[in-house]
Amino acid sequence: MKKLRVLAVAALLGLGPVAVAQQAETSLSYYLPADVSYSSAVPAPKDILGYNVGEWHVSHDQLVMYVRQMAELSDRMSLVEYARTHENRPLYLLTITSPENLRNIEQIKAQHKKLTEPAQSGSVDISNMPAVVWMGYSVHGNEPSGTNSALLAIYHLAAAQGPEIEKLLNETVILLDPSINPDGLNRFASWVNTHRGKNLVTDANSAEFDEVWPRGRTNHYWFDLNRDWLPLQHPESKGRLAKFHEWKPNVLTDHHEMGTNSTFFFQPGIPSRNHPLTPENNFKLTQKIGDFHAKALDKIGSFYFTEENYDDFYYGKGSTYPDVNGAVGILFEQASSRGHAQESENGVLTFPFTIRNQFTTTLSTLQAAQAMREELLAHQQAFYKDALNEAKKAATKAYVFGSEKDKVRAYHLAEIIKQHKIEVYRPKEAFKIDNVTYTPENAYIIPTEQPQYKLIEAMFEKRTTFQDSLFYDISAWTFPLAFDLEHAALSSRNFRQNQLGQKVEDLAFPKGEIVGGKSDYAYAFEWHDYYAPRALNTLFERGITARVATDKFTTVEGKQYDYGTILIPVTGQSISTEALQQVLQEVAAANGIQVHALNTGFNPQGIKLGSPMMQTLAQPKILMLIGDGVNSYDVGEAWHLLDNRFDMKPTLVKTNDFNRIGLNKYNVIVMADGNYNSISKDKLRNWVLQGGTVVGMGEAAQWLADNGIGNISFKKSPSDTATQKPYADMANTSGAQVIGGAIFETKLDLTHPLAYGYTDAQLPIFRSNTLFMERSKSPYANPVMYTANPLMAGYISKPNLQLLKNSAAVDVSAVGAGKVIAMPDNPNFRAFWYGTNKLFLNSIFFGQIISGQSARAEEAAH
């Protein structure tokens, strides 16, 4: 009767059933435990936000207002800003515990961290030590039920009264990160709130549920921050990880969303897909914590599943990184309403319902952490002791890496490693391994006998055998291969503790300078250095002209210069000799490069400085296609590289606008992985014919091939000829053919402009697709080829491995006066694949000088 009366009143007010449901669902009583009383002195979320939780999607500025005010009002909370996003939004971490614990928080933190130090952990009494729980919400901005549930978690922990909450706060320290991805969250909240009507529309075809490209999942540069816990390429991740290691939590939760037609998932994931470095006890603890989630969800009538679909293999994810740091990571996946209320296979899925599940499992996590407090603390204590014992028994005693020609790449890897609280040293003196000499100036050593042993192994191992052939994410991420650095695993036969030199405390960026003083003739710098392209582009921006050496030469001083050396003549520049020297000093220091003063062009060996093989370069004027059809991850990685790291200014043009704009001002077009059927292929071809360079990556290379722009062809995968297989095996059988992400060996032609700056013909490449490019009929068109035995780390099926062997990794075609450069793989993967960035940058800077003769010969052959 009560329900009928409510519906009758609703009819008089013009409210439909969905609106009535929303009114009921957004009240605090819908979310909060019925057996808990709350202080009237603590404002409810509506008192600060002006609306009930779940009625609207909270924007980041509203969230900031809320957490600041709650932290000021509650003696159970303190607030710290740990980073700023690319869009300058603050990221906050709330510390929530009893007032007494807050007063002693630094002492509690110091005592807790002793558990991770085997030399001290044995003396730590865990019987009265609080467990530390990190609650992380909505790393994907368009998965907002997490962040919106954090509003409730903060209110509950501030306002709940009684002995149970006091006991919880006494026995736990809760670190609450309400929005891991503020830029993406704000983008999504703006979209769904803008398209919300007074009356909620649940039709899945509504614009509310179809946000525009690039959508709110990612951060400013369209990166998935949930893949950045290991690479640490973004300010959000760097700041968060610093706080993680400051505390070393026992449990970390990671609140996500999945497809609208699903239910709710909590870990553990598929057991066979756990990373082997994760101790078995971690899985057992995750299962035990899962019992608390199941009971809590049963109580409110929510359906769920576990030990399916998801895994704990890639340590770069928020729910998996804790597992290799002595903690237990917990992934939650809630079916997404993708707006305020949407029709699904399970009925209308409302935003408040999704929030309630996330809040419910927030509370069940805290219950589990409190009940299992000593177990979790003991696990952390044992994890680091066991890790150190394993390190003592392991064959590998240290890893060394470095680069004689490019200190910056080695510096950036050392920078990442140090952020993971791994000890890094310089070699005490030069030593040689496998014909490579490592020196104190160009190399770093990581001894394995330290508490972070398992994480060190995770970063350096080259695993090629697996229990399972399916992966939720990538199967390999070996860091020295990603950085294309000389490296070696040192055993007890070639490593002693006395080889360790100075411990790296404050990592210094490599020094750049002018060598040889002021010149009235010319300057030169080699292309080996990672930031050489940034240096050259800065010179272009200053109006300084430059040339590139397409052959080697040796100066009268006896220095040998490699292919790709940049020459800056003194005469003919628009600035004075003194001003040029000053600019070059600034550029050298900013980019860590050595600029050499040259006083004669009459080189005793190789080409002379006035040779036609010193080719004049034009500054790249880049158009980068974005928008519908384009893979936002891949194009974001290219944009981030050019803009954020190399200070270049690509013009971002939507695919829908390409056909109407003029192209004359651009000489390079970048096409990241994607489908480009909306652009005019004739317009693009005509632009290339007139001298432009197109760089096509991933499916863009396939699109160029399909549309006859360049002489590119791809292998066809053989069809499965089996007549009958079990239906139940279909998903696993097809999934095993996916290359989710692995590392492969290629061979470079070091004389080719696309290989300028490389010194080793072997180049590790990351691959995450099944596009296999045919070798060109021209002997000069494939400067990068996969080798006959290419697998270096990760998983690939046997049929795909056969297709990959001896296939082309890069193809260069001449189309009229222009060039088409095709790369099936992504050379800028997740911003940490430093080793292949140079291939992409060389395409942009040197595509213009590649000879068209060999490609034209192929054109005739076709």
UniProtKB/TrEMBL annotation:
* Listed SMART domains: Zn_pept
Q: Which residues form the signal peptide?
A: 1-21
Q: Which Gene3D superfamilies match?
A: Zn peptidases
InterPro entries referenced in this protein's UniProt entry, alphabetically: Class_I_gatase-like, Peptidase_M14
Q: Specify whether Magnesium is a keyword of the entry.
A: no
Q: Which cofactor does it need?
A: Zn(2+)
Keywords, alphabetical: Hydrolase, Metalloprotease, Protease, Signal, Zinc
Q: Where on the tree of life does the source sit, at the highest rank?
A: Bacteria
According to the entry, every stretch annotated as the Peptidase M14 domain falls at 56-355
Report any Pfam family annotated for this entry.
Peptidase_M14
Give the residues annotated as active site.
333 (proton donor/acceptor)
The text of the family note is: Belongs to the peptidase M14 family.
Q: Which PANTHER family match?
A: PROTEASE FAMILY M14 CARBOXYPEPTIDASE A,B (PTHR11705), SLL0236 PROTEIN (PTHR11705:SF143)
Q: What is this protein called?
A: M14 family metallopeptidase
- Which lineage ranks, top first, belong to the organism behind this chain? Bacteria, Pseudomonadati, Bacteroidota, Cytophagia, Cytophagales
